[in-house]
Write a structure and sequence with these properties.
Number of helices: 8
Oligomer: single chain
Largest sheet: 2 strands, antiparallel
Radius of gyration: 16 Å
CATH topology: Endonuclease III, domain 1
Distance between the termini: 19 Å
Number of strands: 2
Number of domains: 1
Helix content: 55-70%
Structural class: mainly alpha
């Protein structure tokens, strides 16, 4: 971000915080946040919570587990979110990106993020190209885009 943009964004963040209070990021680990970001598209939060619980029960709530799983098992676990076939494929794609590019979530998290350059704490958005557009997923990314 340019200096001007950073100042403008900071003012917007401060204005929103003064109006609505501090909004905290959800308390799940990085895997859960990334999975939830995909699942929350075009669905109610209650259904995302059900799907995350099901993924945990089925031991599919990590990028490594999703990467190794059959897409049919993921589809069944996330069926309650709607568009479950698309979301299962996006989760598989995200897991492949994380595992094949970085070697896992911990290795990806160890890479410095843009937040250190912008001064804004919190996650950075990882953009996943999809057939119908792009999907923004909270996570981490290298400074050199692929």
């Amino acid at each position: 971000m340019s200096g001007y943009s950073s100042i403008k964004v900071r003012k917007i963040v401060d204005l929103l915080a003064s109006r609505f209070g501090v909004i905290t990021w959800w308390s799940g680990d990085t895997d859960e946040v990334m999975i939830g970001a995909v699942l929350t598209q075009q669905t109610r939060w209650e259904n995302v919570e059900k799907a995350i619980s099901r993924l945990k029960a089925d031991r599919l709530a990590t990028m490594a587990a999703i990467h190794a799983a059959d897409v049919a098992d993921i589809e069944e676990a996330v069926r309650c979110t709607g568009f479950f076939r698309i979301k299962a494929k996006r989760l598989k794609g995200l897991a492949a990106l994380v595992m094949d590019t970085y070697g896992g979530v911990a290795q990806m998290a160890a890479i410095p993020t843009a937040s250190s350059a912008t001064g804004f704490p919190g996650p950075v958005l990882l953009w996943m190209p999809t057939r119908t557009g792009s999907c923004a997923v909270p996570g981490y990314r290298r400074n050199n885009p692929r």
